[in-house]
């Protein structure tokens, strides 16, 4: 079942697979409609094996340029919408003792860049929420995978999808290259979405489902650098950090 804002855009799939595919009109920000959508999928196909939260878009602009409404909309789209769908899907998955939840995050969900603070904030939130979820549902046979792509040749960078905050004089020159890069990426992204989908399907059908799956060479390289940078930072400040503890309190053995 494909829950999309414009079902007409996937009409070819419904024609090609009339018995195994259904498109329904749905806005991922509609948290109130999540339960009915999940029930409709179960009614149509009998069970729910995999939930993929794939909706997403970006707002480009400096922190001072992106307003509350834009930031909240991305949080609705990337966190609250997926959270509602997951909550709606979990009872059926728990009852069957199996299921996989695929959360489409981004390389920007583990590191951020100037000009994409709102996008990364919402993806960082999805990552933290999903990591906690994974620990909570593993005992029920439910798996969670965060997919962290680099740039893939989808509609993400299309002019009517990508939003640019009104540039200010303060940040106009500083973010000029970022804006130009994002605006000029459509149709030139190095990632192949068909190959990416094949990889995701293959991993979901397998026994070894990672919590995080980077996709694309750029994602692998950038995330590797980010992890090494962060580890170096922890190691550099480790002694200073440890000195903040009470000297007579033993190390914690708490579950968190």
Automatic annotation (TrEMBL):
Classification via Gene3D superfamilies: NAD(P)-binding Rossmann-like Domain
Keyword field: Oxidoreductase
MF annotations from Gene Ontology: oxidoreductase activity
InterPro entries documented for this protein: NAD(P)-bd_dom_sf, Sc_DH/Rdtase_CS, SDR_fam, SDR_oxidoreductase
Name of a matching Pfam family: adh_short
PANTHER family: SHORT CHAIN DEHYDROGENASE, SHORT-CHAIN DEHYDROGENASE_REDUCTASE FAMILY PROTEIN
Stated family: Belongs to the short-chain dehydrogenases/reductases (SDR) family.
Protein name as catalogued: Short-chain dehydrogenase/reductase SDR
Organism: Amycolatopsis vancoresmycina DSM 44592
